[in-house]
């Protein structure tokens, strides 16, 4: 079966057991938001105990505090009333295995998927590639805990972020499912 | 109990039933990615039938094809091998209820949460506000189906997106849980 049909089939089953969820309100019932990574192994609803309607979930490559993540967070509180935020990176994140230089080089060689070896990603595809990757900041990570603190700090210092919103910095451990507090993130994310 | 303690308590229960999930591989097992909205009512793992390890999930305010969403999608296929993508907006999206002008005006008045009335959002907070909102494109939505098609097209036309990746455009109906195909999105998202 194709991926599309698998998704639509799974959706039919979800619709059949949908119950009263159609009555949920637009603003998150539990008043908080989570920024986390797109990684397939992470299910924030499961690892943080969210039911439909509870909390905003923002996800991108690396759980980085990109301009777009901040756009989403500001909408989340200003229009929909969240008052507490989590930044949750994770162990074994793909963003730790490459650099801007490496990504730009890979993309310049081909647009096919690269392979991952002990030395990092290497290209196996056929060209043509594209130079467009040189114009993108890939927001890679070289130090996990430091990246969490920097992301928390970037959000904390943003002029549109109210001073009274606590921002929690955590790492999700993909090996155990555990949320680990990042030393130093508490101070960086403390409400002003 | 505080939100933080609730999340950590839920996480403990998840860890206790974690099973063999610590052995999941980094690349998504089912080779696809979903771009969807941060809305609290959406649980893409549930509405699309995803288990941990299956697929990348990217989320932002509106499920928009922002530069950051495209950064994440390009990493998703180039480094981690996804070959099929979904763009899934939803009904009753908050992004339909305001405009850049309205958001900038609200933020300039105060940084507290606004209220939603029949005429849209209105400010109830005390100043000071900030002019910083004038420098952000909030990526609001005025026509739901058109926005899906535009997002699919923006991704389709991006120079770093390989021509053979299908991109599916859908709307999740929050009233029923159903995924509805957007007329015209199929053509816009077809592999070249």
TrEMBL record, chains A, B:
E.C. designation(s): 4.2.1.1
SMART domains: Pro_CA
Catalysed reactions, as listed in the record: hydrogencarbonate + H(+) = CO2 + H2O
Binding of Zn(2+), residues: 37, 39, 90, 93
Entry note: cofactor: Binds 1 zinc ion per subunit.
Keywords, alphabetical: Metal-binding, Zinc
InterPro entries, alphabetized: Carbonic_anhydrase (IPR001765), Carbonic_anhydrase_sf (IPR036874)
Coiled coil regions, renumbered to chain: none
CDD domains, per database record: beta_CA_cladeD (cd03379)
Cofactors, names only: Zn(2+)
Superkingdom, natural source: Bacteria
GO molecular function: carbonate dehydratase activity; zinc ion binding
Zinc is among the record's keywords: yes
Function: Catalyzes the reversible hydration of carbon dioxide to form bicarbonate.
Family membership noted in the UniProt record: Belongs to the beta-class carbonic anhydrase family.
Record's protein name: carbonic anhydrase
Taxonomic lineage: Bacteria, Bacillati, Actinomycetota, Actinomycetes, Candidatus Nanopelagicales
């Amino acid at each position: 079966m194709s991926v599309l049909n698998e998704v639509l089939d799974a959706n039919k089953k979800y619709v059949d057991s949908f119950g009263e969820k159609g009555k949920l309100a637009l603003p998150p019932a539990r008043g908080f938001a989570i920024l986390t990574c797109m990684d397939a192994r992470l299910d924030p609803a499961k690892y943080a105990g969210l039911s439909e309607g509870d909390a905003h979930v923002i996800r991108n490559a690396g759980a980085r505090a990109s301009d777009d993540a901040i756009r989403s967070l500001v909408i989340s509180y200003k229009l929909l009333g969240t008052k507490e935020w989590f930044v949750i990176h994770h162990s074994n994140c793909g963003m730790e295995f490459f650099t801007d230089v490496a990504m730009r080089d890979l993309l310049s060689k081909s647009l096919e998927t690269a392979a991952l070896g002990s030395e990092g990603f290497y290209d196996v595809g056929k060209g043509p590639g594209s130079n467009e990757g040189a114009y993108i900041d890939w927001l890679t990570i070289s130090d996990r805990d430091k990246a969490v603190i920097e992301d928390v700090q970037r959000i904390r210092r943003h002029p549109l972020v109210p001073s009274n919103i606590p921002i929690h910095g955590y790492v999700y451990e993909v090996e155990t499912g555990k949320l680990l507090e990042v030393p130093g993130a508490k101070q960086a994310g403390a409400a002003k």
